[in-house]
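About this split. The held-out portion is used to measure sequence recovery: a designer receives only the C-alpha cells and must propose an amino acid at every position. Recovery is the fraction of positions where the proposal matches the reference. Here is one held-out target exactly as it appears in the evaluation file.
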C-alpha cells in the first residue's frame, strides 16, 4: 500500500508449475506476518492442490514454498484446496477436501532464522553457507538475487554447503541465502468429519 492509500503491485506469484493445475486462487487466506495459503481444488481432475506462499521478511519477494496434496494419499476426486484458512499467528493451517468430507490440519515447523547475505563481485558463482545454515535436503535452501527468487536446478545448484549459480551475476547485487521454514501435517490434529452432524446457532 502506497502513501497515497493506493495499492500497487510489487510482486507476482507464478501459477502452479504442476500437471493439470486449474483454478489456482479459488480460495486464499493470509496470516498477519508472512504466510498465505492458496487453493486450486479443480486441479488434476478435481483431486486438488494447495500451496503456501511466503513473503521473505524485509523484502518484497514472495515465493511458493510448498505444494500440498491429500497427505493420506487418498487421490480420488477430493477437491482438496476448495477451502483454506490460516490462523492469524500463522501457526495453524487447515485445508478442506469436501468431496472426501475431510479437513486436514497442519502445524508450522519453525527453525531459528538462518540467513547469509552477500554482495556479488562480478566474478564468483559459488557462495558458502557453511556454519550458518543447516539443511537436510536441497529444497530447504532459498536463494534471492537482486530481489528475485531463483529456481533450484535452473538458476543454481547446492553442492554441499554452498550454492553455485549457473551464471555469473553482475557486480554489486544483493544475494541472500536462507533456510525455509516449513508447514507440515500435524497428524494428531487430522480431522475426519465423516458421519458427524451439523448444528445451528444464533447471534
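Reference sequence for scoring:
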Amino acid at each position: 500500500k502506497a502513501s497515497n492509500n493506493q495499492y500497487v503491485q510489487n510482486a507476482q506469484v507464478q501459477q502452479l508449475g504442476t500437471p493439470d493445475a486449474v483454478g489456482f486462487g479459488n480460495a486464499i487466506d493470509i496470516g498477519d506476518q508472512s504466510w498465505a495459503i492458496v487453493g486450486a481444488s479443480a486441479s488434476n481432475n478435481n483431486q486438488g492442490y494447495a500451496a503456501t506462499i511466503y513473503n521473505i521478511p524485509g523484502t518484497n519477494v514472495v515465493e511458493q514454498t510448498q505444494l500440498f496434496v491429500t497427505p493420506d494419499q487418498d487421490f480420488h476426486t477430493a477437491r482438496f484446496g476448495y477451502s483454506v484458512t490460516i490462523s492469524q499467528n500463522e501457526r495453524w493451517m487447515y485445508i478442506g477436501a469436501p468431496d472426501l468430507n475431510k479437513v486436514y490440519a497442519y502445524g508450522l515447523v519453525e527453525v531459528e532464522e538462518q540467513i547469509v547475505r552477500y554482495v556479488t563481485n562480478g566474478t564468483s558463482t559459488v557462495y558458502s553457507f557453511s556454519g550458518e545454515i543447516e539443511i537436510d535436503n536441497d529444497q530447504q535452501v532459498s536463494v534471492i538475487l537482486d530481489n528475485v527468487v531463483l529456481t533450484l536446478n535452473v538458476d543454481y545448484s547446492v553442492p554441499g554447503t554452498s550454492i553455485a549459480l549457473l551464471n555469473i551475476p553482475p557486480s554489486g547485487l544483493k544475494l541472500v541465502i536462507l533456510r525455509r521454514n516449513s508447514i507440515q501435517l500435524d497428524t494428531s490434529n487430522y480431522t475426519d468429519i465423516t458421519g458427524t452432524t451439523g448444528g445451528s446457532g444464533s447471534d
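Annotator remark: The mean pLDDT is 81.
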